[in-house]
Amino acid sequence: MSDSVTLYVLQYQLKRNLHPFTREEILQLPTGRSGVYVLWRKTGTEGRNECLYVGESTTCVRRRLLQHHSNAQNDGLHSQLRMFRSIVQFSVEFTEDAEETVSLESELIREWKPKTNLKMNLDKP
């Protein structure tokens, strides 16, 4: 399978495997697993979602999501979570190694251009 097909499949899975952004849902994730995660905000009544944030953890996705849940250090994301927490969802794709994790995060940020990603905004000229 080519890289573009693999990325397409990953994007599809991340858009479909949504969980409410609650502490209880996050605690159901396994500990000590690396991966990428996406925070989504429901928009409209057609079941569409806006990508708020793409992140990665090379050590523990669960711990990183709990950090976002309790207090996002990114001001833009914190503002979105405060206003829309009841309609925010998350999805996760676990990875095998740090290189894959960082690469996937970069690809997803480049593809979806979430407004609250500081990494994306720092790359702008």
Automatic annotation (TrEMBL):
Annotated Pfam families: GIY-YIG
InterPro entries: GIY-YIG_endonuc (IPR000305), GIY-YIG_endonuc_sf (IPR035901)
Domain of life: Eukaryota
Domain GIY-YIG: 32-118
Name of this chain's protein: GIY-YIG domain-containing protein
